[in-house]
Automatic annotation (TrEMBL):
GO cellular component: endocytic vesicle; late endosome
UniProt family annotation: Belongs to the small GTPase superfamily. Rab family.
Coiled coil: none
Keyword Nucleotide-binding applies: yes
UniProt entry tagged with the keyword Cell division: no
Keyword list, A-Z: GTP-binding, Lipoprotein, Nucleotide-binding, Prenylation, Protein transport, Transport
Protein name per its UniProtKB record: Ras-related protein Rab-7b
GO biological process: protein transport; regulation of immune system process
Transmembrane domains' residue ranges: none
Domain of life the protein comes from: Eukaryota
Span covered, complete protein: 1 to 183 of 216
Lineage: Eukaryota, Fungi, Fungi incertae sedis, Mucoromycota, Mortierellomycotina
GO molecular function annotation: GTP binding; GTPase activity
Length: 183
């Protein structure tokens, strides 16, 4: 088997921290300044797993703001995994995830053809003391949207802080470890 390259797409409302999460994961850097992403771009990072296997994650950061969204959508195609991002201090960003997920499946051309498409749920900004989305609510969403074919696999839920670099790696490493491109 050759080297794995996985296309991973970050989606979610503007300002939830998609760009910051990727920056923290790739460069271990964070900035408080907000510059909205326009369109989308990717950075590739190679990860060595515990068993010595190497996986390259091609991580796509997309635009969340409504006026730039249509530009980002064009890059969903060919995705192997998708990270649904929200801000734990902003309930609306959590509420919008069902719509993001639906749009992703449609635009990526997955639709109902692959009920096993791997999504990961990621709540960001846990460093802020004003959480309004509970872990329980996040798990509820994950259960509702879990893979139902074969053995039930629940959508994994992560809570992170791109600012403090807490749990940021978890979601990406989970994808590197579990997602396999069908041969
Ligand atoms: P779009 O590109 O518009 O879709 O936004 P985005 O999801 O890429 O958000 P971005 O990473 O640009 O972050 C938006 C704002 O939130 C910036 O001011 C960041 O500094 C801030 N931010 C991002 N992550 C965190 C975090 O974990 N904690 C805190 N306190 N602020 C964060
Ligand atoms: Mg961005």
């Amino acid at each position: 088997m050759g080297k794995q390259l996985l296309k991973v797409v970050l989606i979610g409302d503007g300002g939830v921290g998609k760009t910051s999460l990727r920056n923290q994961f790739i460069h271990r850097r964070f900035t408080n300044a907000y510059k909205a992403t326009i369109g989308a771009d990717f950075i590739t990072k190679e990860i060595e797993l515990e068993d010595g296997k190497r996986v390259s994650l091609q991580i796509w950061d997309t635009a969340g703001q409504e006026r730039f969204q249509s530009l980002g959508i064009a890059f969903y195609r060919g995705a192997d995994a998708c990270v649904l991002c929200y801000d734990v201090t902003n309930y609306l960003t959590f509420e919008h995830l069902a719509k993001w997920r639906r749009e992703f499946l449609n635009q990526a051309g997955i639709g109902d053809t692959n009920p096993d498409f791997p999504f990961v749920l990621l709540g960001n900004k846990i460093d802020i003391d004003e959480r309004v989305v509970s872990r329980r609510q996040a798990r509820g969403f994950a259960q509702e949207h879990s893979i139902v074919t074969g053995a039930k696999v629940e959508m994994p839920c992560f809570e992170a802080s791109a600012k403090d670099g807490i749990h940021v790696e978890d979601a990406f490493l989970y994808i590197a470890k579990t997602v396999r491109i069908p041969q």
